[in-house]
Each structure stands twice: as structure tokens, then as C-alpha cells.
Amino acid sequence: MSGTLPTVRGGAQCLYPVTRTVQFLTDIATALNASEQRFKRRPPLTIFTLPYKSMSATDTSTMKAFFESQKGEFDSTWSFTLGSTTYAALTFLDSAFTVQESSPTTYSFTLRARQTKNPGQTAGTAGSAFPALSTGTRAQLPYTQIRRFAALVNDNPIGPRYTYTWFAGALSGFPTRSLRGWELSYPALNDADLSTLESHYRNQWGRWATFSFTDPDDATVYANCRYDDDALVITHQQKGVNSLTLKIIETN
Where on the phi/psi map is residue 35: left (φ > 0), alpha (ψ -120 to 50), or beta? Predict the structure, then answer.
């Protein structure tokens, strides 16, 4: 078995858009005052979703044969190249190869695969400030800003509400205001800007490290932020055009 994913029309192993997910695994213990203890569980693994639309009978048969040779999910030793990076130790995520014939001799199908081991993740520079894009901005429109409180709430069935606030309640060691958060959508990134954002995410090991973030609205710097997702989902829309969404939260 093993081998490499076959090429299809144009000599490519995949067709746009390709979804590539960088998946970390972090344990987080959160206290009532929103302070955290975070633990790395493993280096990142990469997951792929590869759609194939309007394929010829020949290319479809080639992919079927490769799926057969790997016995579906059984083998985990094949490789795939995206851009200049080769990803090894891959396995299919599905036990069935499902094909739709949309017109005579025209077929569509989707393959999903993931790494079973990481060839090596360098430590990077954890804690570095969230980077700006090549345009000098840190966000593309639209983006979402979040403010969150934490309160103990008891609603009486006849109407009254009894509450106690953990944040902004003059408690020692607790936040003195709401904590911030952001959801940053980047619908169109060039390869250089994608590399900048992905490198920062990888260097923080997903949700593990904290860093400073400058609010794109009023330029206020928040010093104790982290990513709020262990999965960085990147869509390669076409050559040189990429998209992703980042979730960032402030911690105590």
C-alpha cells in the first residue's frame, strides 16, 4: 500500500477549493475568575477535505483504484502534496467512496483525509503579539467584537431574578470589567498574509499560549489573549487566494 494520491486533470492531485485544517489538542482548566491553566496534548495534525467536481470517467476510476488499494480507512502511510508541502502518514476518514454521476460520464466526489502523526512541530515564538497583514491592518471587514461577563443567576418561577457577579464585582483577583473577544473573518488572503497568520497560530500551539491583541476598532491593546479554537480551518479558494476565520478571547 502506501504511495501518493494520484493526479487528475491538469496533473494536479486536487482541485480548488481545498480545505486544510491545522488541528491542535489543548487541555484547559478555567477558574471562576477566568484565569486558566493550559496543557499541550500533542503537536498539530492536518486534516484535508478534497472536492472533485465534474470529473471524467478515467480520473474517477483512478481515484477509485487508489481508494481500493488503501482499503478505505485501513492504510495510513500514503502522502499528498499541496503547494510546496508534502503531508505524509495520511489516512482516509471514510470507509466508503461515494460518487455522483451528474451527467453521462461526468462524476463528482469528495475525499477526506488526515495525518496520523506529525513530522515535527517547532516551538516557534509563543507569546508574540498578534500580527498585522501586509496592508498594515489586523482585520478585514466584517469582524465581530464580543464583551462577556460572568454572573451567578437564579430565576424565580414567579418572576424575580437573583444574581451575583463574578466580573466587575470588586472581588480580589477577578476581572474589573467585561472580558473581550473577537471573531475575525478573512475572506480573501494572499499566500503571504496566510503564512503570517498561520505561523502565529502555530507558534501559539493553538489555544495554549497567550499574546497581546490590538482591537481593530479603537486600537486598545489587550495583553492577555489567546485563540479560542484548536482547529485552524483554511480554505484555499484558488491559486493565491485563501480564507479563514480566527476566534480570539481575552483571559484574566
Answer: beta
pLDDT the model gives residue 123: 66
Name 22's Cβ contacts closer than 8 Å, sequence gap at least 6: 44, 46, 198, 201, 202, 206, 231, 232, 234
Where along the chain do its domains lie? 1-121, 123-252
148: nearest Cα among 23, 252, 31, 43: 252
The pLDDT tens digits for 20-63 are: 999 999 999 999 999 999 999 989 999 999 999 999 999 999 99
Residue given cell 485501513 in the structure block: 74
Paired with 214 in beta bridges are: 221
Q: Coil, strand or helix: which one is 201?
A: helix
What is the spatial distance between Cα 179 and Cα 184, in angstroms, rounded to a whole number?
A: 17
- Whether 84 has a pLDDT exceeding 70, the answer reads yes
Return the bridge partners of 22, or none: 46, 232
C-alpha 202/C-alpha 46 separation (Å) is 12
Mean of per-residue pLDDT scores for the chain: 95
User: Could you tell me whether strands 106-115 and 85-92 are parallel, antiparallel, or unpaired per DSSP bridges?
Assistant: antiparallel
Residue that has been written with the C-alpha cell 461577563 in this structure: 149
The CATH architecture assigned to 1-121 reads: 2-Layer Sandwich (3.30)
Percent of the chain with pLDDT strictly greater than 70? 98
Q: Which residues are paired to 154 by β-bridges?
A: 162
User: Helices marked H in the chain — which ranges?
Assistant: 57-69, 191-203
Q: What pLDDT shows up at residue 118?
A: 85
